[in-house]
Amino acid sequence: MKNVYLDNNATTRVADEVIEAMMPFLTEFYGNASSMHSFGGRMRHKIDTARAQVAELIHCDPSEIIFTSCGTESDNTAIRGALARCPDKRHIITTRVEHPAVQTTVRQLQKQGYRLTELPVDSLGRLDLEQLAETIDEDTALVTIMYANNETGVVFPIDRIAALVKQNGSLFHTDAVQAVGKLPIDLSRIPIDLMSISGHKLHGPKGVGVLYVRRGTSVAPQLVGGHQESGRRAGTENVPGIVAMGKACELARTYMNEENERVRQMRDRLETSILKRCPNARINGDADSRLPNTTNISFEYIEGEAILLLLDQLGIDASSGSACTSGSLEPSHVLRAMGIPFTAVHGSIRFSLSRYNTDEEIDYVIDHVPNIINRLRQISPFTPQKDATTAAPQDRTPGL
Ligand code: PLP
Predict the structure, then answer these.
(1) Strand, helix or coil at 212?
(2) Which segments of the chain does DSSP mark as H helices, in order?
(3) CA distance 307 to 185
């Protein structure tokens, strides 16, 4: 059976070049980068190279890069570490559509006494920047707003948001886990203070992440012990992971422009064909400001899990809601925040592509999805009376 992997927002295939770059550090060069001897010490300049590769992708200084273990650690460190450094301010602003790595952290802090504002989004998943401006006050320590949404792919106008937050004197953190490697990001032009990145979302391995900390921003370390990462994150350096992260960033910089357009074309073709051939399907999220690789489609009146199961039998990997929260049958908090009707939230599927997908794979998915939807609609107790195959075009709600 063929395997068509369309779940790249959950995790990505590690690029061959990345494996090649990290392999010697798992086998031959296994020294501890903090050791005094030269066998270990030789690793230090490999870490420096990786730091420079990351910095080059996002246009910052290498000294502003801290290596972590994942996006979740970067988010936790950014939020908790920044707040610890401004104990007099007790207000946090975020959105209702953040990844659990941010949402759970700020809600925990709320329980510990912080005042938390979770900004709403509209039906396309967009924020109201005027509302954001009105919400910031002199007690606001931190604003944390994601760059791009993992479920819908909606991209927030982070340049305008960052400028607005800085004008109002607060710190600004963005969870850019889904954006880095998919969108050009220039930190020399956007006044972001703190930014989280994860290796496994950009064809690097699991177990490595990055926290960008703008020079002059103070963040209390959340892992204490040794003096690694200039005292900002203790723990023996994950040299293979760090080398891999550097290589993945270098590849992202090389491929981004060339491959993004191809990925976008495949995503658009998949989306358009599905909407044309499946009645009562709608796209979730702002089509004008979305990651090029993501589409989130609601097939009304059927269960997303049933669709996933049938796709899985055909070797097609997709996701319903966030992979990180799978195992729970709770409907997506992101789609609920957008006010998507209950009947559509439950039938939502996220397809997320990468540069490794091909046109043939997309043809295969286009060929099979309409049959799956039709089969499920015929047995669904919720389907409106009309025969799904003969629905009039006006009954098709593209939601674009
Ligand atoms: N933030 C976003 C937007 C994500 O999509 C994810 C993972 O899905 C994370 C944070 C967590 O990253 P990691 O899996 O590296 O901990």
Answers:
(1) strand
(2) 16-22, 38-58, 71-84, 100-111, 129-135, 158-167, 228-231, 239-277, 304-313, 333-337, 342-345, 359-379
(3) 35
What domains sit in the chain, N to C, each tagged with a CATH number?
A: 4-10+256-388 (3.90.1150.10), 16-252 (3.40.640.10)
- Considering only CA atoms, which of 199, 225, 226 is closest in space to residue 211? 199
Is the entire prediction scored with pTM above 0.90? yes
The pLDDT score that the predictor gives to residue 254 is 94
**169-222 pLDDT, tens digit each:** 999 999 999 999 999 999 999 999 999 999 999 999 999 999 999 999 999 999
* CA–CA gap between residue 79 and residue 264 (Å, rounded): 33
Q: State in Å: Cα 202 to ligand 1 middle.
A: 11
Please give the structure tokens belonging to residue 60.
């910052």
10-26: string of b/e by CB count within 10 Å (b at 16+)? bbbebbeebbebbeebe
Identify whether the C-beta of residue 198 lies closer than 8 Å to the C-beta of residue 170. no
Which atom of ligand 1 lies nearest, measured to the CA of 11?
8
Q: Is the pLDDT of residue 394 over 60?
A: no
Q: Which of 177, 183, 208, 211 to mutate to test the pocket of ligand 1 (most atoms within 8 A of CB)?
A: 177
